[in-house]
Structures are given as C-alpha cells and as structure tokens.
Amino acid sequence: MQTSRSKPCSCPSFKLREVASMYFTMIAVFLVILVVALQGSVPRGSDFPYKVPLDPQGLLELSWNVSYPEQAVHFQLLVRDLQFGLLFGMSDRGEFENADLAVLWSDGRNSYFGDAWSDAKGQLHMDSQQDYQLLGARRAPEGLYLLFRRAFSTCDPKDYLIEDGTVHLIYGILEKPVHSLQAINISAIHRGLQRVQLLKPNITVPELPSDIKTMEITAPDVVIPSQETTYWCYMAELAEGFPKHHIIMYEPVITAGNEALVHHMEVFQCAAKFDSFPHYNGPCDSKMKPDRLNYCRHVLAAWAMGAQAFYYPEEAGLAFGGPGSSRYLRLEIHYHNPLVFKGRRDSSGIRLYYTATLRRYDAGIMELGLVYTPVMAIPPGEDAFLLTGYCTDKCTQLALPAAGIRIFASQLHTHLAGRKVVTVLSRDGRERQVVNADGHYSPHFQEIRMLKEVVAVFPGDELITTCTYNTEDRSRATVGGFGILEEMCVNYVHYYPQTQLELCKSAVDPGYLHRYFNLVNRFNDEEVCTCPQVSVPQQFFSVPWNTFNRDVLKSLYGFAPISMHCNKSSAVRFPGDWEKQPLPTITERLREPVPRCPPTPGPRPAAPVPLNLGELRRD
Amino acid sequence: MQTSRSKPCSCPSFKLREVASMYFTMIAVFLVILVVALQGSVPRGSDFPYKVPLDPQGLLELSWNVSYPEQAVHFQLLVRDLQFGLLFGMSDRGEFENADLAVLWSDGRNSYFGDAWSDAKGQLHMDSQQDYQLLGARRAPEGLYLLFRRAFSTCDPKDYLIEDGTVHLIYGILEKPVHSLQAINISAIHRGLQRVQLLKPNITVPELPSDIKTMEITAPDVVIPSQETTYWCYMAELAEGFPKHHIIMYEPVITAGNEALVHHMEVFQCAAKFDSFPHYNGPCDSKMKPDRLNYCRHVLAAWAMGAQAFYYPEEAGLAFGGPGSSRYLRLEIHYHNPLVFKGRRDSSGIRLYYTATLRRYDAGIMELGLVYTPVMAIPPGEDAFLLTGYCTDKCTQLALPAAGIRIFASQLHTHLAGRKVVTVLSRDGRERQVVNADGHYSPHFQEIRMLKEVVAVFPGDELITTCTYNTEDRSRATVGGFGILEEMCVNYVHYYPQTQLELCKSAVDPGYLHRYFNLVNRFNDEEVCTCPQVSVPQQFFSVPWNTFNRDVLKSLYGFAPISMHCNKSSAVRFPGDWEKQPLPTITERLREPVPRCPPTPGPRPAAPVPLNLGELRRD
Lengths: 619, 619
Hints:
Helix content of chain A: under 10%
Number of strands of chain A: 38
Low-confidence stretches of chain A: 1-45
Structural class of chain A: mainly beta
Number of helices of chain A: 5
Largest sheet of chain A: 7 strands, antiparallel
Largest interface: A-B, 16 and 16 residues
Radius of gyration of chain A: 26 Å
Mean pLDDT of chain A: 87
Shape of chain A: globular
Oligomer: homodimer
C-alpha cells in the first residue's frame, strides 16, 4: 500500500515518528553525529506522505514531502542493507551522465555525505555548491534512514531543476569501500532509475460521504510471469441491474511484498454496445485473449507507482452503472519484473469508492491533441521534433456550455518517441495558462495527474497540445497511428460537467501534405516515389531526409490549415465545416518561468559532511 | 583634429591635466563636492585619447579611454552651456526607449547625478543598481566637465552591454529645472544620437620611418551646402611619374569648427585602365558629375567621426603610385548638416603618410560576403532576416599562399536594411575565431576598423559572413544589388601579403532558386507570376509572403548549393568549377561569450549622488 494518510484507509503506515519511538532504546548504533541546519527545516510532524521503492528488490525506499512555501522537497531514504554507501539523484531522463547526485560513501571507517554531479562521461565530481542538505541520519533495525532536503531550484548550473511532471530518480549502490568520490566507477555499480512525480499537487482531500461503498477490482491470485514485462488482463463485472453511481475516489491495493513489481494498473469500462464480454484472466498480449476485450477502453481508474489515492472534486463523480453503460470492467496490470522473480503471487488491483448519492456533476474525459493519422509524421534522426494538435475556438464555441468546464486532472499520452508534452489554454489569441506540462515526459510513466489548480475552459477558448519527439535511433519516418512504433500526441483531460464533446483534436490538411510530397519530389534531384497512389506512410518513408525536406515539413505543419475532429464520440462529429480550418493564431505567448533561487535556511556546508555510521563491512 | 597623440602630429590636444593647470586659479566655481570612489579608478595620466562631438552644435563633447584590464570605459563629458542638466547614455540603435542613461539634473538649486533607464514608453526610472560611477565634476570657462566610469558589462538587466563594434550614444539637454527624474519628458527635450566605436582596440602604434612624407588630399575651401546630407566629390592627382610608395598611416584633417559636420571621408584610387580622369569638385550626386568618376572605387583611406589615425602594421604598407596604378584620386566627404548651417567653409580631408622605403609586404583588400545579385533576397516585414555569404575552403586552398595571410583591419558594409554583420573563420568544419563582428551595425557608420588581434587565414580555411536585415518598414522583397534600396552583405578585409584573390563571395545557386519559385507557385492557392521569363526581382516581388514561403526561403538559403565567386578581380575567376558548390558544413560553433561582471572598485552608491554646481539658471 502506498498511501500513508489515515483516512479512509487504515493500511500500515510508515512514519518517522513511530519508527523512532519503536526503536528509541537501541541507542548505540543510532548515533547521529552531525545534524546540520535543523532550524525549522526538518519537517514538522515528520510526515512523508509519498513513498516509492527505488530498486526492484526494495533495498532503497524513498519517502518525501513537498513544501511549496519553502519551495523545497524533504527526502527520507531508507537503505535496507547498507554496505559502503549509495548514490541518489536526478537527471534529465534517468541517465547517469550529467546527473545531479547526493552521495553517501564510506571507506569502511569514515562515512561522508555530499552533493556531487557527474559529467558527460559519467565521472563524479564534488559540487562546489552543496545543495543536498543533510538533515539527519539514523540507524533502525530495518536499515539506515537518511533525511535530506533539496530546494526545487538552486541556480547552480550543475544541479537538476525540480519541475512539475516526471522526475527521473537514479540510484546506485556502493558495494565496496570507496576512498574518494572520484574513485567511484559509476558504470560498474549496481544502479537503476525510478520515475516519479516529485512535486505532487497540494490538494485538499474532499470529505467522503457516509454512504460510501468500496469495490475491489483485483487480480485473482495471479502468478506473476517470470519475465521483465507483463501486461495482465482480468475481466470483472458489475452485478446485474447495478444502478448509476458516482466513483468519487479510488486507490491502489498492492499485495505486500510486490510494491516494486506492480508498475501501473488501470480499470477500463467496456463498450455498452455489446451485451456481454467473455471472462478472461491472462496476459493482455496472449493469442488466447478474446478480441472483444479491445472494446474495453473507457478509463474508470488509473494508478502508477508513486501515485496516491485519486479523489474527484467535491462537485463531481465519475458515473458508472445504470442503463446505457456496460456492466463489464477490464483490469490491466503492468508487472515490471526485471530481476525475473519466479512464482510470485499477486492480488493487486484498484479499490473504487463510490456512492449512490450522486454528486452535482458527472465527470467526463476529453481527448486533446492529434488525430491518430499518418499525415502527422516525424522525420528520422530528430532530437526534438514538435507536433501540435489543436482544439479550436470554433469547436469549443459549439460544444461547451456557456458556464464552461473545469479541468481537474490530466493524463498525457504518447508512444515510445515522446519526450515532452504540454497543453496550453489560449483565449483571444493570447496564451493564458498551462493546463498540464511534462518536460521530462516518459511513455513508461503515464499517470493521471491532479492539476495544481483547476483550469476553467469557456466557449471560444483554444487548447493547444504540443508533443516533442526524439527519433535519433530511427532510420525512417515515424508516422501517427495506433502501432507502438507509430506515434500519438494526446492529453486525456478529466473535467466536469460532462459534455458531449469527447474528442477535440486535429491533423494537417491532407491536401497540403500532398503538396508537400509533390514539392519534395520536384525539389530534390533524386527520383523518389512520393506519388499519390502510394499510402501516406509509404510516401513519408521515401522522402530523402535532408535539412531542406525536414525544414519544409516543419514549416508545413506550422502553416497549413487543419482538419478538425470536434467529435461527440470517436466517430460522430458535431455538425459544421471542419476541413481546411485555419491554424489558431497566437499573438502573445506565455513567458517561460524564471527559476527562483530561494535563500536556503541556515548555512550550507561547503564540503561533504562526515557522518559517524560506525565501521561498515561487507555482509 | 581628432587625435591627441603627440607624435607624429602636433595638433592642439585637449588634456584634462592641461585644462586643469590653465584654470586652477579660478577656484570658486570649480568646487567638486563629491568625488566618489577615487581609489585607482580615476584614469592616471588623465588621458582621453578618443573624442567626438555628440550634437551638431558641439555643445556636448565626449572624450573617453578604454581600460581592458579593468573592463571599463572612462568618460569625460564637456558640457559647454549647462542649463539644467543632461542625459547621456546608450541604447541598441540610438532610440530613447529601453535606453541606459546617466542623468545630471538640477531643480535650480540642487543637482544630482544618477544611473537611470528608460522603459519601452520612454519613461525614465532610477536604476536600482548605480553603474555609471561619478568620478568628478568640475567647472571650467568652456563648460562643465563630468568624469564618470562604466564597466563594459554590469549584469544589470537594465544596463546596456558595451561590446565591440558600433555603440549608439544618445544625449538630451535639460533646458528647464527638473524636480525629479520621473518628471523628465524625454520626447520633449533637445536630444540626438551619435555613433562611435567605443571599444577601440588597444594597438601599439608602429614607429614611423625618418623618410616619411605627407600628402594632404583636402577639399579646396568648399562651401558646405545648407542641406542635411551632402556627399562631396573632389578629384586630386599624383604627380606624373610618381613612383610606387607605401602608405603606412593616414589621419583626418578637419577644418576647425566643422568637427560636428564632417561625418566621414574616403580617398579612392581610380582605375588604371583609363589614362585620365576629369577634374571635378562638387556634389557626388550632381548631374554635372562625369560618369567616369564611378571608376574611382579602390579605397586608399577611409575615416569616420570618432576614428583616429589609421596605422598599417609594421611589415606592410598600401602601395600607390608607380606603373600599373592610376595617378587619379577621388576624395569623398559626407557632410552631415542637420541644422542646415549656411555658408560654412570647409577644407577637410585626409593626410596620407607614405614612404619610398617599401615595407616587406604590400597590403591588400579582399571582399568577403555575398555577390551583388538579386538571387539573395529578404522578404518584407522581417525583423531579423539572415543572409550568409561564403568564402570556401576550395577557394582559399587555391588562392592563398601556404604561409597564409594576416587580416588586420575590416570594414563592414550593407545598405539601409543592415543591422548586424559578422565574419567567422572556420577550419575543418569548426568555427575558430570571429574576424569582425558588429551587433549594432549601422549603414550610416562604416569605418575601417583595426582588429583587436590580427587573424591568420590559411589555405583551406573558410570565411563565413552573415548579415542581419530588418525590413519591417518595407512592403516588398529586398533583393541583392547595387541600389540603395537593394542590399549588400560585405566585409572588406585589409590584409597582407597581398594576393591575387580580390573577391571571395557567394550566392545561392540560381537553379535552386528557380525550384523555389516553382514550389511557391504550386504550393500557394493564389495565382502568382513566378514564371522564369520574368526577372528574379519581379519573381521575388510577386511571392505572397506567408509564413510558409518565408520559412522555405530561409530553408533554401540554408540548404541549396552555392555559386562561388573566387576572383582575381571582380570579373576574372580563378580557374576551377565554382558552380553548385556544397555549403560549408559547420560541426562546432563558437560559443557566445558570457558577459563577465567584474567587481567594481570601491562601493557603488545606491542612490543618485548630489552635486554642488551652484545655482543653475537659464541663460
């Protein structure tokens, strides 16, 4: 279980205070010799609401809290089997080069803690400005607890800037005595990465009604396959005649011991147009899986590692049950088992909290971004190619109520080449607000995220979603589509009150793309087959990707009119003329936020801090 | 006369020390109440070698020196007819909005000096960081002297960054009592701008030989026309049989009192192919001017306001006289007479210092940049459009001696839309050195500038010249060419030893440009005449300038092969294949220099400094 909030669940929680009181008699080894800068910066109440295992064995367990007034994160790292130290840090995408690291190292007699960084070759260096502030260290039977603090922004160019969205945490375990930081060969150590949303939004949890009921959609004692990646599918169903309810909260149910294996889970509702769905319990990619399960795609709940319980806003709930909705649910669990453990049994899943006392509004989900079509493509060998999908003023004017809608959560989605995603709200040609942004987006970490503040969208507003792709490892163009090697650019926004608008997405006008292929054909000396009788992907695959053809494709996407999908469901458009629509014009862009460098409370050490952890030996 | 160096000319110089000793008995009004931060930062020797009038009446006269060790400029501003203060400062292109200003103001009783800035509307604000440091103020019979200091870079975002190249100085005269800085209405005051090269290179002046001779090419008592702008042409000639000499230095000769009117002067040698040239003395744009004067274009000497004497390096001199060179010289003087003075007589010109003892090397001039051809064009309405001309490795390989050449001076040239010019030396695909750069280039201020350091160019090197243009005020495309509303992108580099290579320039391949017009024709819905039977300028004028056509033109210039002009003279190419040459590839760019913010010597005042100048009254 992930959450440590006491209400409404009462799962075993893991608070520093309790641990401290349990073991406070075992003083000898608990010595904290140096506690630096305690004035007000050790979290009061010592509450670390967020927790994630860093490694698949669960040797390192990170808990943290976020102080927005202080613009800082407090970390508590539990090291279960301390040998000669560890590395913990952050980097752009989880690489060990150009990383920002806190390092605890020991030569067997003396231990040190310091802020370090790795260069482009992975060589470690002590940081001239020490920004990981050690707040305490203490031994307990289960391991060593390290407490430290880090400001979101330090303005030290060697430090990682902690932003909203995904943060790639990295760790390394030092299994031999280390005589200096420089002596650590970062490529030879036991190491790994874990993705989390470090800056969780600071949201007040709404009170739950007294008639709340729970329902667990969990795997029926599955034996986790002994392979790195498994998507497990399990079909559940609601009771016959189950009336309309509102889901107002859900949380993960994780089988104890499997915290590091259960990567993410989703509960989908099946399509109402089919009366029944086959029962199935097995891998999602099995040949035995009935095809009809592909019609179970309406998300009811989604959880990913590091996430807590998901609460709907007080005024809204997600409708399920009742006429016009399917009784059938599909649970999908992504097991991540890189150490290929065998025979692990699992009954994890999601616990839905729902009520028959319907809230004022039904919540809805709307798809923003790009239509799944090959006309939107990325040339090969690009390090950061942008594609943009539009939800135009014309569509919101037609489809949204005068009082607008409120977006409260968002789930970003691309396939494997996606590196960043951002949706911006624009009104009267001026960018007003970021709806959701992830500058370190990973397709392997697609959470539903509560927004820091609810975004109001009114008729006439524009929602512009831009995805950044990296295709440096590809030799041919990546086209839009459903395939894992094709791409998507989507933001599923969760909002209320529900409207008929399910999909507000765009793609370049195919006629203009046709002109592009003609142009490529005529401009380049090579004879290339970009003739119209060939499919769009085939035409893209035959483009010779020189700088001109790349530049002109970018120019085309920034200029050509769009085909708008302003749809009630994925196939039914709102009435109107949606072809060859002009691109929204932006006259005023949002400014990039300038990182603030808050003064750190108390003096910062200029050098690594010695720690008395006793003599460390190899076990 | 501009120069204050005592050797070899002995013109009246204007040193602070002498002025001080002349008037040191007139103590009463000379009181300097507050001299701030005198420790070591007042220039020793009090020498201000550079001098320029700021306004056309000569009411404000600026002298300065440059300390490269301190990374600072010391200014001495003479205010001849002080009323209630003045503004002096710098801005990107001489505008009074977003300017960095030192202000001296008086309410009639009390006077203040402070560092201020103007916002985008021209409203003045006191700067929170005071970076114009007042070093002294003193009254003399000729006016008030203000001494102050400014670091090149202050890292205050409200301050101007003093860089190499042109600096637009601005001034304003306060003719009424001013009760606060905020009360100054900057648009209502007497104001203007002056362009100078503030950061003069720190070059050791070579010794001149004993057999040095001088020759003055000066206007014969011309009556300066009572109009704002006049280009005056005067033909001079060398004695029959004048043998080959080396010009090793030249300096301006300015008629006393006309310092603010003589804007720039050049001496050209005529083409040797004509035996004689008509005598002429009159405006260059007169219908009476003989056409043959257009064949007098080989620059022998050039001076512009604020420039000092020009010295050739010790090993080189500019050949003139002797067989194969014309005896005829053309002097061109640009008179800038915005106040339309009438009847001013002028005998200004240039004094050449030459020797019959030829130096080791003849100096030469080479043209880098773009060929004068309409195929290189700038769309209308661009705020910063870049065009690049190449001198390729293939050409330097063929034309330069194995020991290379040394570039010691450079004159940048564009027509009216030019805003920046830079030439970079690249070797093996890696940018190595900036040859000359002007980020605040003005077509109205085209000096020959000595380089801070001599640049060695070897066979196989590439010289890449990029010009930035602004066409926001134009409604149709600006094409390359000789006309004043057409454009050029040229760097005339002065170097030794002279080679046969006179011109190393490029332009886009015309066949690729033709494909561009075809593409525009086919891509855009409008029927535009970009048919080949029409001239290239006509084709450019008919392009509908949407973002796509602009972007694609940029992409074309960055991609298409070039036609190289690797010429012995403007019409004779070196042998070889110069058409459809590949663009040089650059694998490593020079880094933008990061401005250093040197600690200022002594404390800086946080607020404006009060000055006792006595009561100021309107005259």
